[in-house]
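In keeping with the milestone schedule agreed at the kick-off meeting, the structural modelling team has produced records for the first pair of proteins. Each record is given below as a sequence line and a structure-token line. The laboratory manager (R.T.) confirmed that both were archived under the project's standard naming scheme.
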Amino acid sequence: MDKRKYEGKTVYGCLCGYAAEEGGKRFLFDEEGAYTAAQALSRVRGLASQLWACGVRAGSCVALEAVRTKEAVLLLYALQAVGAVAVLTDPRLPAEEFLRAGGTGVRAEFVLSPRSGAWELFAADGKAQRADFFAPAAFFEEGKDARAPAFIIFTSGSTGGAKAVVLCQEGMILNAADTLERGWYLPEDINIALVPVFHVFGLSLVLTAAVARHAVYFPAETDIVSVLHGIARHGVTRMNGVPSLYLMLAEASEREGVALPSLRTGLIGGGPCTPEQFAYIEQKLGMTLLSVYGMSECVGISLSDHRDSFADRSGSVGRIYPLNRAHILGEGDAELPAGQEGEICVESPFRMLGYYGIPSEEGFLRTGDLGVIDERGFLHITGRKKDIIIRNGNNVSAADIERALLSLPCVRAAAVVACRSEREGEVPCALVVLREEAREGALRASLARLLKKHEMPEKILFAAALPLTSTGKTDKQKIREMFEA
């Protein structure tokens, strides 16, 4: 990938190029209708004119209640066209309430909300202006600084408090361009928007579409059976998702007897997936999964190649993106050789500008994740620094215990957290979802053959499902609260 081709490129610029060269191609669609690239650009220009007329300028913070619809994406692109900062909020709450509850200090000058049944722009003084998606374009000043703050997204808070992450357009576009070859993007692709747009995985999906120049389908219903039939009906070829989503889709495909011959590939990340689960998903859905590793603070760190073997795709999170440089650091920040475990740190053009009000420090980004880069360059995630449980002075890896639990035939899903102990400092506790009925004693006996004594969970609870955050990740904060209650 020629980095120079995309440096300084804006989201609006990418859409303009798409419309100029392939304007008649379908870009965004749902059950009710579709926008071609040219139609989408026309709508974006009209919306950008309205935003400008209401006082939205380059650098204005505009909270967008980020529902997964083609109209929300048009507004997102329009905000970028004028150079505003899109503050992406979880639409299950009014934007003001969401920002207040997050405690990150982010304040919006304007709010874009569909709550009245139509999209409206609310100013700080309470005045509202309805968005007209069919209004012709008028004057607006195009925002051209691709390195300025463009998006604010919020970490899920699955292991603690949320943070407000500031990203720029250039970083998102460079990541999209660096993904195209390894990620097996084809011009005829149809991606399905299932991951929330207010999460970096979903934001990346709707922005990559303008770079890859493919279509995006927005399903009205997201229960798994409706999604299954939507993929089959619309010939969806690819998707982004967390392991739990793929597993539910594979199970539904088997249960409902619905094959998905069009589904070719998908990016999978955001949580652990065993090789057995990986194989089950690929077999039932007839697709090639590509492991991806990234985070809100750096959208892409590593990615599998569709030409990699099954063992490499299922047993690692791929190789470091070509535009990135990774370091595995040990004690005293010494850089470790291949095969040794340490903290994953990365230098990347995709990284955040900083947290809201706190610019990024120079140098590499510390991910907080532990990993190993093997002799062939494949990255293996081994755990999180914050998931290291210190029990009687012994370091215990929550990830190791989870892997041991998931290797048992009776266990469908598992999550391990650290809980306070007056006697031992911290102890591991496990929440387990069973495939089949099993007694705790038998489970512990099987686990004892795989773990050392100090690694054995102090407590085991059983549940019908693991609690998940809004982005589909395991909510370890909620699990910890369950044990501490």
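The second protein of the pair:
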Amino acid sequence: MKSLAELAAIREKMKDKVSMREGSNDIRIVVGMATCGIAAGARPVLNAFVEQVSKEGLTDTVTVSQTGCIGICQSEPVVEVYKAGEDKVTYVHMTPEKVAKIIEQHIKGGKVVSEYALKEN
């Protein structure tokens, strides 16, 4: 970084990503980032959600954040989706490759991607 203008450009570029991670929108995507989640690959999953939400122009309606242990370590990486007025959906064994389908079908389309979702007993 050589100038204040460069710093301002970096700040502007990152502003949407920061607000997306700290917002309180109607849709929240929460990635489990405890030690077990990170070891299982949660960091690339979190990054994929941030990138995909930004790419799809959903930063005004979707917040992507992280949390500690969700409690189902054997199913990591775990992602929980909260939509106002709906039950929470828990996605398990997540990979960055699965993110686009969840954004397209669940976040934008309103249909749970059942093959990735935690099955209730």
